[in-house]
Design brief:
This protein is an alpha+beta fold and 1866 residues long. Helix content is 37%, strand content 13%. Helix 11 packs across helix 15 and helix 45 (1424-1436) runs parallel beside helix 48 (1479-1493).
Length: 1866
């Protein structure tokens, strides 16, 4: 029973304390006057009666009522029900009386005089109670007020006395009995009665309607925010203008939190004087009146809920963790079903009329039911994570948070983690953890209904039904009696508070009240104590978490297959099948990512431990350790899945004998994990073990099978610890005192022994193996796991105690005692904590503290011995290093360093993710040679351990090298490594093995750098090859060939002399030599510069056209250069004609630059217009950058238009050329004269063109719109100026517009109107850079037109290339999907640059083809100009699409015209800063794009282009070194004499090498080659038509790049089949081809290569000199042609001829597949007409047929002819008999036939291997008439039957015999 009310207090206004404006209250009377013993009187009640301050009011207010809550020091809550009414105050003047001076008489007098300015003061009746019965308090205080105000005849003292002595039962039973009713019904002696509804179960909170009201005021989302904030311990402040509502809201929030209890500051109504409480740092729930809203504004970390406005304001700095999904969503839905049932049917056409929300009271309970369900779901299975550590004298229980979160799969969840760490949950565990206690609704729900909730998920009806059921129970609990009818309480009459002459509240007689109270207490003491029978029982545990949660069982990770692998691997290890184990091992390590696999591992290992010990051999030990490490590596320090816990007993079980008496245990090798340093982990482990032991203690010995098996695993048979505990607690009161003592003793000693055990365990895992070294303590988590090799175990371990000492001292060598001390401190802290919690006595604790240092010291001593022995173990065998094959003359600079090759971002490279076992990481060595960096090794994955992995690239192609740190293997340290990137699209990501010292890695880098950037070009591999590397460093090595050296010296000297003279005589304009451009220093230090002091020889001022004898030799060499041959082919003049100056040719070869005097970067011989003098050229050259004046490089044989190239104009030149006369010219008009000469020069070019035959010198070619392309047709617009234009190629000649119209253009040179059509077509277009041609006006009187276009500069190419490399060969796999391959490819803009180049080239081709000449004059004339000019020639002239022609093109345009290969490739130290710019590569990529679109037009294959791409930067050949012919001559490179080249064993020229290879094997040849005459190609250049070149992405791990042909073959014979040696054995020919590993083109060659190869092999076997593949190919092709001619309708079988693709389709770049027939080889039926169109060689532009091209290679040996003669052969079906010359060849085992005896071309071959039988035949229709019919015989082959007939019977017999003997020989 409990008192209904403890105190009754009367509080009034205190007139004496009105100094500060705000008044104060005072307690006028309180009953009882002395405190109850069990419940002292609470302080500060007067503050809470008027929370907003005591003030006087000018009129009476109606009475108010609210309940404030005070919390006392023992955190007991007191409910203060305040009933306030107003009384008149006599005068505003302060009274002179003392505090209680006024008697009642005075008051009466005063009140009889009514004063006009009357003020009213509040007075409060307060009930203080520990029970929260707000309604009863309201009624009781209302009754007292009614008695007073209506003057009822009841004594107030009696009523108050009765109120204070009223006692009620605390909790109700079931339905009330009759006598019980008297107890529950109270009457205060004023004719009233009330029934008090005491809740059935007082653990459930009472909320009446407050929860529903809270939701009404704030809404679902806001309340959920508040709910989560309260649970995660945020500060919450309610604002309202109603005190009652504040109290209700706070009560509602607490009710929602059930079963958790709020344990922080809780003040539903905070008085004004105490507002500073709001800035307390602890969490709180407080209510404040809205008038103080402004004062809450500056609270930064408080969640403010405004009840009147319905808003919740969460400050920015506060992050509220919300419920985990899907619970959040489910809760929201359930709440909306309860609060707004109409929502479901709102859209129905006929909504049911019955639906409406429940009454407020019911709704309130339904909402609470939703939250109750929520908690049951959140905390389901919590009892399985309780550890009971003591049962007697009272239970001690701990909650294993990590295990709970881990099993629920919610470790990442903020909300639940915070809740479990909070105070409320700690209270929950203390209160509800006990195994034997009364249970309530929540316990039942969490134990029995979880499965039901899981099943009903998603079914709204069922969920609602469940909610209603729970709500019923809650309602029943709050209102057990339907007794509302019995209430009878008087209320005051309406408006009574407004009466004027209201007497003040009377002074009560203390004595009377006190007497009533005393009597009641006396009566209570005599009555027998009412014992409430508590129904205690065992708390049900509910299903274990594992049974509930399938939701997080991520199926993939835990597949049974993986677990099977883990089990197998472990059994192999213990059965000593090490090879098998090794194969499975990587898969096991991968599986360890999954939780199930880790559990499986620990279980399997447990099975192999007998009697707590398992002795292993070294290899087994190593495997077990690596698995354990990998297992622990993915666990966090929390150990949420209990993996570390399961491994803990194992690390002390597995061991190996190091030497007699010395054993190393597994724990010394798994210390490197952060979990061992986490004190919470050790506590949880300790409690878990203690629980198991305590449980064992109480299990009867009968059922004590084996404690291990019956931990929580099988709850059905074995009792859990909690069940045993509850049983014990039930028996406890019945035991004798001694028995109780004995049990307490036993339990304590159990705990104590476990503590000693744990002190040992902790020292095992915290003391490092090598205690002499102090370790670096790491407080953070460790990502890496130490590698355990047999040799020794590394000594660093995750620091045990972060605070033990500062981390700086981590590396100093300290005394071992430091380690010991820190470990001792850590263990002491642990022991203190667990022992005090589990109630170990102080003596025992002291004993433990003494023992710990000894334990640690002993362990250190045993470790020393183990450490010593473990160092002596033989190291684990590492794979032996494989040596790479080197080229002839390539030498190792540095021996192999052992490294791991790590996978990078290319998926295919690794296998793994694409399928198949991963090839990388691979273990091997990196070698540095004079030419390459090579990695060679074997994959670490044992499934592919036999394969060899090679990755290499030339040193010269290295573009970036950076240090990285990588973790090479799953169970190893992080190692230092290097990432080397090469512009041959290769990446070496290597991690140095731990045996490689860091300084040797440093030396490796230094060597690499030295080789990558030699001082001088002479240091590159192409020069040093064959010398010993020592010499390589001395650039002035003696040349072998003196004549050559002198020649080049002469040349250079002469050049210097002439340059010197010119420059001295003409001082006007001296462009600096280009080596100096951009750098600041001047000529002093550069030997190439020409000093001005050379003697002036006036006679040689103008270069004479006669040549000195000394130069004759030079000239003969120059003539041999490729350019000269090409000029002759193009009909641009020969040297002889140029020297004799015959006037009939428009162009001549000028030798003006023979000494490289005019332009260093041009070749010695140049084509210039016939009419231009050499000295004019000299002057013109100065207008152009780098003196690169316009020269002719190609002429269209049909239209005779020419293609010229030059550097861009200098600023001065631009102005001069386009005659902007407004610029004043200084001094003698020098600029003018040069510009005139320039014009003359261009005019001369124009005059050379045959169409140029107009009277006025104007070209009247067909009308042509302005010089620009637009969107017409397949052209894209090139430049941004946006002038509308398109090709009107065949527009009829229109009348020309007048000159003045043409001049009406805007300032910027663009035409004013789109109608501006030029009706003549310019004879010469100058393609220039838009940025340079600013301000240039088109001049109608000139015959050339400028086409300004925007081009990208070299910087952009560099940047783009870098991005392209990163896209194609990413350094690491990108996690971010936005940086996927295609996206980054687009970002690189590489393809758009290629598009630009192709577009410009096609424009130029188009112009040349329609008869205008073009001058390409961009940048300095050696980058983009070269790209465009070479592409134009390639597209326009079929000759350049042959092998020979392409070589010529590159030599002429790229090498002779001075593309700066060394500079752009950053080949020497000087170029290092400028970096690599792949201009030539870009050109080759363009060629590749054209090749793709026109596969039949090129004689060379794609491989040829890749080969050039690779070797132009590899520095293996000298061809692409240096920047111009001049430099090559200076080094003596250009004209090596013939004798020298033969003597060398190395190819110095890439072209010779290609030639040699091409003779051996058809790798550079394109079998689809079937050119059409004079075909001009116009490829599509849209980006959608461009493909990424596979050169950038392909890789061959089996042999490295295949471009060093000797290496790739492994043997010098290039065409060897790799698996030829197996052919003897009848093995299957099948083999697996890995795209990233094998060289596909060789492992699976195309059919033709394969046939040619087999032919060659057979010839070798027969001991003949094999025929060259090219001859064979030509023969086959020729024979096919003739066969096609003769047998028109039999389509030839295997090869492609010049097919019948229509001209148009081919020129558009159609692929073969789209041809008429649809097969890839287009064999048209009308082959008679189409395939015979052999390329004509008659035209000047045509070319010799392929067979004649190669006739110089004809074989010398004659064919084998064992028997020959003439036979008739019947043609195919419906064909006549023809006489043929047959040859039987025994060696080749074939029967060949020819047209006649003299014929060299074989018409057909019958392979004797295919002959099945030879039989006498019969004559058929059309056979020769004269022949005997016995002379016929048939030859049956597998394919067909051949019918033959000889001249007579004998001959026929002879043939039959010969063929038979051949067959039998075989």
């Amino acid at each position: 029973m409990a008192r209904l009310a403890d105190y009754f207090v009367l509080v009034g206004y205190d007139p004496g304390k009105r100094g500060s404006g705000d008044g104060q209250g005072q307690i006028l009377q309180r009953f009882p006057e002395k405190d109850w013993e069990d419940n002292p009187f609470p302080q500060g009640i007067e503050l809470f009666c008027q929370p907003s301050g005591w003030q006087l009011f000018p009129e009476r207010n109606p009475p108010t009522f609210f309940v404030a809550v005070l919390t006392d020091i023992n955190s007991e809550r007191h409910y203060c029900a305040c009933f306030t009414f107003w009384e008149a105050v006599e005068s505003p003047q302060p009274q002179s009386h003392g505090r209680n001076g006024e008697g009642e008489e005075e008051e009466e007098e005063a009140s009889s005089l009514v004063q006009p300015a009357q003020l009213f003061a509040p007075k409060s009746l307060v009930l203080v109670s520990r029970l929260d019965h707000a309604e009863v308090f309201r009624n009781s205080l209302g009754l007292i007020y009614t008695i007073y105000v209506d003057g009822l005849s009841v004594s107030l003292e009696n009523v108050i006395g009765n109120l204070l002595t009223c006692t009620i039962p605390i909790t109700g039973g079931a339905q009330p009995d009759v006598e019980d009713e008297a107890v529950r019904t109270i009457s205060l002696g004023a004719g009233d009665r009330q029934v008090i509804q005491t809740p059935i179960n007082d653990s459930l909170p009472v909320s009446s309607c407050s929860v529903a009201l809270l939701f009404r005021q704030l809404g679902i989302t806001n309340v959920l925010f508040l709910f989560c904030a309260a649970l995660t311990e945020h500060k919450i402040l309610f604002l309202s203008s109603s005190y009652q509502r504040l109290t209700d809201a706070c009560r509602a929030l607490l009710a929602l939190m059930f079963p958790l209890k709020y344990s922080f500051t809780y003040v539903p109504i905070l008085p004004a004087q105490l507002l500073e409480v709001l800035s307390t740092p602890t969490p709180f729930i407080i209510g404040v009146h809205s008038i103080f809203q402004s004062e809450t504004q500056e609270l930064l970390d408080v969640v403010i809920a405004d009840l009147d406005g319905g808003t919740v304001n969460v400050p920015e700095c506060v992050h509220i963790s919300l419920l985990p999904e899907p619970l959040l969503q489910q809760t929201r839905e359930a709440l909306s079903m309860v609060l707004d049932p109409e929502l479901e049917v709102a859209d129905l056409a006929f909504p049911p009329s019955t639906i409406s929300a429940s009454s407020l009271k019911m709704q309130d309970k339904e909402i609470r039911a939703v939250f109750l369900r929520l908690f049951a779901q959140l905390l389901q299975g919590y009892r399985w994570c309780l550890h009971i550590i003591r049962i007697h004298p009272e239970p001690v229980i701990r909650f294993h948070k990590a295990a709970f979160l881990g099993q629920r799969g919610l470790t990442e969840d903020d909300f639940l983690t915070k809740v479990l760490e909070g105070m409320a949950f700690a209270g929950f565990v203390t209160e509800r953890g006990a195994p034997y206690r009364p249970i309530d609704l929540f316990d039942e729900l969490v134990a029995y209904d979880v499965k039901r909730m899981k099943a009903e998920e998603g079914n709204k009806q069922k969920i609602l039904r469940h909610i209603k059921e729970l709500a019923e129970k809650l309602y029943k609990n709050e209102n057990p009696y339907p007794a509302v009818t019995m209430h009878k309480v008087q209320k005051p009459t309406e408006g009574c508070h407004l009466r004027l002459h209201q007497k003040p509240f009377p002074h009560l007689d203390e004595g009377t009240v006190q007497w009533i109270i005393d009597q009641a207490t006396a009566k209570l003491q005599t009555a027998p104590p009412a014992v409430k029978a508590e129904k205690k029982c065992m708390v049900p545990s509910g299903p274990p978490i594992a049974a509930i949660l399938e939701r997080n069982g991520n199926a993939l990770a835990n597949s049974a297959r993986r677990l099977e692998v883990v089990r197998n691997c472990i059994s192999y290890v213990f059965e000593n099948k090490m090879l098998e184990a090794k194969k499975l091992f990587p898969a096991v390590l991968r599986a360890m990512k999954g939780r199930a696999a880790r559990h499986c591992l620990t279980q399997e290992l447990h099975l192999h431990v007998q009697q707590n010990r398992a002795v292993l051999d070294h290899q087994q030990f190593d495997f077990v350790i690596r698995m354990m490490n990998c297992c622990l590596q993915d666990c966090t320090a929390m150990d949420e899945h209990g993996i570390a816990a399961a491994l803990l007993p194992l690390v002390t079980a597995f061991c190996r004998k190091l030497s007699p008496g010395i054993t190393q245990f597994a724990y010394s090798c798994v210390q490197e994990h952060v979990v061992w340093t986490n004190i919470q982990f050790w506590e949880a482990m300790f409690y878990c073990d203690v629980q198991n032991h305590i449980r064992a203690l109480y299990l009867d010995s009968a059922e004590e099978n084996h404690t291990e098996q019956e931990s929580a695993e099988e709850p059905q048979e074995a009792k859990s610890a909690l069940e045993i505990a509850s049983e014990q607690l039930r028996l406890w009161p019945t035991m004798s005192r001694e028995k109780q003592q004995e049990l307490i003793q036993k339990e304590e000693s159990t705990v104590f022994s476990q503590a000693i055990h744990y002190a040992n365990r902790m020292s095992y895992l915290l003391l490092p193996l090598d205690t002499s070294k102090n370790r670096l303590l790491r407080s953070s988590g460790l990502g890496d796991v130490e590698s355990v090799s047999n040799s020794f175990v590394t000594n660093s371990i995750a620091g045990s105690v972060a605070e033990s000492y500062d981390t700086e001292s981590g590396f100093e060598d300290a005394e071992s005692s430091d380690v010991a001390n820190s470990v001792v401190r850590f263990i002491n802290r642990f022991v203190d904590k667990v022992c005090t919690e589990s109630g170990v006595t102080n003596e025992h604790l002291k004993g433990l503290h003494v023992m710990i240092p000894d334990i640690v010291q002993m362990h250190i001593e045993t470790l020393d011995a183990v450490h010593r022995e473990s160092k002596r173990l033989p190291p684990i065998q590492k794979p032996k290093l494989l040596r790479p094959n080197l080229l002839l003359g390539e030498e190792c600079v540095m021996e192999g360093l052992r490294v791991y090759l790590m996978p990078d971002g290319r998926e295919e490279g690794a296998g793994g993710s694409i399928g198949g076992p991963p090839l990388l990481p691979a273990e091997g060595a990196v070698f540095l040679t004079t030419y390459r960096i090579i990695f060679k090794g074997t994959p670490t994955d044992p499934l592919v351990g036999e394969q060899v992995v090679i990755r290499s690239f030339p040193i010269a192609s290295l573009t970036k090298e950076k240090k990285i740190s990588i973790q090479a293997q799953a169970d190893q340290f992080i190692q230092e490594g290097l990432q080397l990137r090469s512009c041959t699209f290769q990446l070496l990501k290597i991690a140095f093995d731990e045996e490689v010292a860091s300084d040797s890695a440093e030396i490796f880098r230094k060597h690499l750098h030295k080789l990558r950037y030699p001082q001088h070009v002479r240091g590159t591999f192409a020069f040093t090859v064959g010398q010993s590397p020592k010499q390589a460093m001395q650039p002035k090595a003696k040349e072998k060939n003196p004549s050559l050296r002198t020649l080049s010296k002469n040349l250079v000297k002469n050049a210097k002399r002439t340059i010197g003279r010119q420059y001295v005589t003409r001082k006007k304009y001296t462009p600096p030599a280009w080596e100096q451009r951009g750098s600041q220093h001047f000529p002093e230090d550069n030997e190439d510069e020409i000093s001005v002091s050379e003697e002036l020889d006036r006679s040689t001022l103008t270069p004479s056209s006669t040549m000195r004898p000394s130069e004759k030799m030079t000239m003969t060499h120059v003539v041999e250069r490729a350019c000269c041959r090409d000029y002759q082919r193009l009909g641009l003049g020969t040297l002889s004609s140029s020297l004799t100056r015959s006037k009939n040719e428009p162009f001549r070869i000028s030798t003006v630059n023979r000494m490289y005097a005019i332009c260093r970067s041009y070749p010695g011989l140049l084509i210039v217009p016939q009419s231009i003098q050499d000295n004019t050229i000299q002057r013109i050259s100065r207008c152009y950058r780098q003196s690169r004046f316009p020269v002719v490089c190609w002429r269209n044989s049909r239209t005779k238009a020419v293609l010229l190239r030059s550097g861009g104009l200098h600023g001065k030149g631009v102005v001069g050329l386009f005659k902007s006369q407004n610029a004043p010219t200084p001094g003698p008009s020098q600029a003018d004269s040069t510009s005139l000469e320039q014009e003359k020069y261009l005019q001369a070019v124009i005059n050379s063109m045959p169409h140029y035959s107009d009277a006025g010198g104007r070209n009247t070619l067909s009308g042509f719109t302005s010089a620009h392309m637009s969107s017409a047709g397949k052209w894209g617009s090139i430049r941004a100026s946006g002038r509308m234009s398109s090709y009107a190629l065949n527009v009829e000649i229109g009348s020309r517009l007048a000159g003045k119209d043409l001049l009406g253009t805007q300032h910027n040179g663009t035409p004013a109107e789109p109608s501006f059509l030029r009706q003549h077509r310019a004879s010469l277009y100058i393609i220039g850079d838009k940025s340079q041609l600013k301000g240039v006006k088109p001049d109608p009187l000139q015959h050339w037109e400028v086409v300004p276009i925007e081009v990208f500069d070299v910087r952009q190419v560099k940047a783009s290339f870098k991005k392209l490399m990163k896209a194609c060969v990413p350094g690491c796999p990108s996690s971010d999907p936005s940086v996927a391959y295609l996206r980054s490819l687009e970002d690189s803009e590489w393809l758009s640059q290629i598009h630009k180049i192709l577009q410009i080239s096609v424009l130029v081709v188009e112009l040349l083809d329609t008869g205008s000449s073009v001058l390409v004059s961009l940048e300095d004339g050696w980058d983009i100009t070269t790209q465009v000019v070479s592409l134009v020639q390639l597209l326009s002239d079929p000759y350049y699409r042959t092998l020979e022609g392409f070589r010529l093109l590159v030599e002429k345009e790229w090498l002779s015209f001075g593309h700066r290969f060394s500079h752009r490739g950053a080949q020497t130290l000087a170029g290092q800063s400028s970096g690599f710019a792949p201009i030539f590569l870009q050109f080759l990529d363009c060629v590749h794009q054209i090749h793709l679109q026109f596969p039949m037009e090129f004689e060379f294959s794609q491989y040829y282009l890749k080969f050039l791409s690779y070797h132009y930067i590899s520095n293996r050949f000298r061809t692409f070194l240096l920047d111009s012919d001049y430099e090559r001559i200076e080094l003596g490179l250009l004209y090596e004499e013939k004798g020298e080249r033969k003597g060398q064993q190395f190819s110095k020229s890439i072209w010779d090498y290609i030639d040699r290879l091409n003779k051996k094997a058809p790798i550079f040849f394109n079998y689809l080659y079937a050119p059409e005459d004079g075909e001009v190609l116009r490829p599509y250049s849209n980006i959608s038509n461009l493909k990424v070149w596979d050169y950038y992405t392909e890789e061959t791990l089996s042999e490295g790049p295949s471009y060093d042909w000797e290496l790739a073959q492994g043997q010098p014979e290039p065409a060897e089949e790799p698996d030829r040696q197996d052919t003897a054995a009848p093995q299957s020919k099948r083999r697996i081809i890995w795209p990233c590993y094998d060289n596909r083109s060789r492992v699976e060659p195309d059919a033709i290569s394969k046939l040619l190869e087999e032919l060659q092999n057979l010839e070798m076997e027969l001991g003949q000199v094999p025929e060259r593949w090219k001859d064979t190919w030509d023969k086959v092709k020729a024979s096919q042609r003739t066969e096609g001619r003769q047998e028109g309708n039999r389509t030839p079988s295997s090869l492609l001829m010049s097919s019948g693709l229509s001209h148009h389709r081919r020129s558009l770049g159609v692929y073969l597949q789209e041809s008429g027939v649809g097969s890839t080889l287009n064999l048209s039926l009308d082959s008679d007409t189409s395939s015979t169109s052999t390329p004509s060689s008659g035209k000047p532009g045509g070319r010799r047929s392929t067979s004649t091209l190669y006739s110089q290679f004809q074989m010398s040996e004659s064919e084998n002819r064992s028997y020959e003669g003439s036979l008739y052969k019947k043609g195919a079906f419906m064909k006549p008999w023809k006489s043929r010359w047959f040859v039987l060849d025994k060696t080749k085992h074939q029967l060949r036939y020819y047209d006649s005896r003299m014929d060299t071309e074989c018409k057909g071959v019958i392979d004797l291997a295919e002959v099945e039988s030879i039989t006498p035949g019969t004559p058929t229709m059309g056979a020769p008439k004269t022949v005997d019919e016995k002379a016929f015989f048939d030859l049956k082959t597998t394919k067909r039957v051949y019918n033959f007939c000889a001249q007579d019977v004998q001959l026929a017999q002879q043939w039959i015999d010969r063929i038979q003997s051949c067959l039998s020989d075989a």
